[in-house]
Amino acid sequence: MLKVLLSKNVLLLNNQIYKVTLKRCYSSSSSSNSCGLFGVGTLQGANWDRLCREKEENINEICRDVTSKDIRNVKDLKYIAHKIDQISQDICTVTDTSQYAINVFRNSSNSLNKLHFEQAYKSLQTFGGIVHRLNADVPLFDKLKQTQQHQLFSQLPFDYQRNINETVKESEQNGINLPLDQRNNLIRYKEGIDYLGSQLDHLYNGNDTGDDLPQLKNVPESALVDLPSEFMQYCQKQVNGKFTLKLYSFMANGILRYSHDSEIREKVYNLTNSNKSGTLIAQTLSGIITQRNLMANQLGYRDFAQYDLSTKLMKTPESVSEFLWNLSTRTKEQSDKELDLMIKVNNGQPIKMSDHAYLKNQILSQYADVTGQLNQYFSYENVFQGLDIFCQDLFGLTFRRVPMEEGECGYNEDDIIKMELHSPTEGTLGYCYIDLWSTPNRPKSSNNTLSIQLGCIKSEFIDFSEKPQQGHKKSLDLTHYQIPRVGMSCDWSRSHTISYDQVLVLFHEFGHCLNILLSRCNFQNLCGTRGPIDFVEIPSSLMECFMRYYPFISKFARDSQGRTLPQDLFDQYLQNHNLFRGINTQEQICLALFCLNVYNHNFPNTNQSLEKLMQKYYNEILGYTGEIGNQFLSKLPHLYYYGPSYYCYLLDQHYADQIWKNLFDSGKNISLQSGNFWRKNFLELGASCDLDTVLNKFIKSN
After folding, report:
1. What PANTHER family does the entry give (predicted)?
2. Which of 262, 269, 258, 270 is nearest to 360 (CA)?
3. What string of H, E and C letters represents the secondary structure of 585-653?
4. What is the largest CA-CA distance in the chain?
5. In a 10 Å sphere around its CB, with 0-12 CB exposed, 13-18 middle and 19+ buried, how is residue 507 labelled?
6. Measuring CA to CA, which residue among 664, 643, 24, 60 is closest to residue 320?
């Protein structure tokens, strides 16, 4: 018997009654039967030490077993492939769960949650050391190479070969083949990168304190007349009648967007875009770039870009560069029209870096700002209904709130909900924990999705037979696979409605969520989002296409009176949003080229600073003049976290647009047939099949 606390909100939608709640609900079973934190059975209470100990002991036992294993037949090869994947599962059970717990319990005031946070952080560090030890385990690597080079290896199914090949390549990229002195150098480079990365994380997540902020004095009142009233609290009037501006990022952005005084805008831009924080970030990033290139050189690569992209869908820096420049050329006609309009508003003058936000706003101000009107149609309740409707329309599934056991989410009252992806014929397909609300000092850009358990095959159902098995089975018995669990973080404010942009981010993250929950593979290392980053962003990018299609969004977008979002309001918003689509795409191309080429071996030899390289692309592609400064780096954590792979958003949106057109007929074919084709031929496969073959089912050659 389940005890569920429901709110009184009941909505009638398409003749169906939806009971909706964001209140906490629990199973009536006692905590002694708890399934553990986020479904990890060992984590009843905060027993992280036990979890780490059990997983480490299991890993050590597998290593002894594998290294002593004689390889005589295909069955033995399969056995080793699955044992290696079990090591990966044990590592990820600790590290992925730890990372989600750190995200969720950061700055919690509850003692149990604090303990979870501290123990999760400690566990992450402990298993970092274990991973480092495994990367240096020569006997284990030798057994993998023996497996890979065995005469029967080619008889293994594709996913078995891929799993072994990927593991061998990862070991080689970690320097397993290097002489001891070079391997020690590699370790020092990685330790240096990790240290600088922790410093960078601190810099990225620092807040405006007020004491060290730049100030601009003697600003005439005439330069401030166009500022909305909420900005005036940061303007201190001087005895001479002029003003001193304390340039918090919020205030600086307001001046750059609203002030008609070009001289004041330029002064504010220069003060805030070449400051101490930006200089520290630039210096730290330069150190990381140097260390990464040295690491890549030690491993025999020309530079870090070549090293990093060797495991991606695009394979080489040259392929990425070609894609980006071709996209820029295709976008140029549209972006030039938009630039001409901005130059016209600027009285024929070239556009400075300090001008473009103001000029865009001047053009946008000619159109009605409908953002506030639009947002009232997105309450928390109907947005979650939208996720459920998506699952029903495409897959015949429901995405519904279910109760949790005591302790399954720590002690986060009203903060975390548990959702179930359910099929009327297949049963439970997976669970999703959603951390709803923003918390103080949470890292910026904290909307993310993390796998906790993936849908790989259970050990008792592994097929060790020597019969050939080609391709992915068309029909799977889902009882043979683990039930996936995933954790999402939303970072929402505690108000009744959320903005359309936040809904767009939620649907983007839900694309990752579905990729994890619907994937079923022989190996967890190939499940869900375990593929290359420029491949796994495709499902999330596709979700954004649905959110720009009014017939779909109108199924759940309702105001507090139950009225449907008017199409003309939505169309007006999209029209405003797309006014500078060409320029915005070119700006993303500039950022992608920048992230790619700072890791190019030629960059250190050009005597360019990071700012000068970025300025070069803005000038060459968009024609912007003036110095860019270094503050843009504080808004580009991808340069560290994604390395040279920032392009993946543009690439995968390109693929998603084609899938939206080819499979879903630009929205006219949203059906169970098209949805299940997408599920069976993409989401279910993960990275277990040849990725180019998977894409070719959806992408038409240009």
Report:
1. MITOCHONDRIAL INTERMEDIATE PEPTIDASE, PROTEASE M3 THIMET OLIGOPEPTIDASE-RELATED
2. 258
3. HHHHHHHHHHHHHCCCCCHHHHCCCHHHHHHHHHHHHHCCECCCCCHHHHHCCHHHHCCCHHHHHHHHH
4. 91
5. buried
6. 643
State the DSSP string of 665-694: GGGTT-SHHHHHHHIIIIITTTTSS-HHHH
Pairing relationship of beta strands 235-237 and 243-246 according to DSSP bridges: antiparallel
Contacts of 510 (CB under 8 A, 6+ apart): 387, 390, 488, 540, 543
Is-contact 652 698, C-beta < 8 A? no
Strands 398-401 and 243-246: unpaired
pLDDT band at 203 (very low <50, low <70, confident <90, very high): confident
Q: How far apart are CA 88 and CA 524, in angstroms?
A: 8
Query: 47: how many CB neighbours lie within 10 A of its CB?
Result: 17
- Which tens digit of pLDDT belongs to each residue from 107-163? 788 888 889 999 999 999 899 889 888 988 999 999 999 999 999 999 999 999 999
For residue 237, count other CB atoms closer than 10 A to its CB.
11
Distance between CA atoms of 652 and 559, rounded to whole angstroms?
33
Q: Which is higher by pLDDT, 15 or 475?
A: 475
Q: Worst-scoring range by mean pLDDT, 210-214, 430-434, 479-483, 517-521?
A: 210-214
Q: Is the confidence at residue 2, as pLDDT, over 70?
A: no
Average pLDDT over residues 574-586: 94
| Cα separation, 519 vs 483, whole angstroms | 10
**Pair 394, 675: CB distance under 8 Å:** yes
Where do we find the tokens 């720590």?
410
Within 8 A by CB and 6+ apart from 118, the residues are none
Tokens of 476: 């799977």
Domains of the chain, with CATH numbers? Answer: 43-174 (1.20.1050), 215-271 (no CATH), 277-298+300-366+580-649 (1.10.1370.10), 377-458+474-562 (3.40.390.10)
Residues 407, 31: contact at Cβ < 8 Å?
yes
Question: What does the alpha-carbon distance between residue 197 and residue 285 come to, in Å, rounded to a whole number?
Answer: 8
Length of the chain in residues, anyone? 702
Residues 6+ apart with CB under 8 A from 241: 221
- Phi, psi at residue 277, to the nearest 5°? -60, -45
Nearest to 269 by CA among 360, 338, 358: 358
- Alpha-carbon gap, residue 129 to 357, rounded angstroms: 46
**106: which 2 tokens?**
């950061």
CA distance 293 to 286: 11
pTM: 0.89
Rounded CA gap, 451 and 432, in Å? 9
Q: What are the φ and ψ backbone dihedral angles of 420, each rounded to 5 degrees?
A: -120, 130
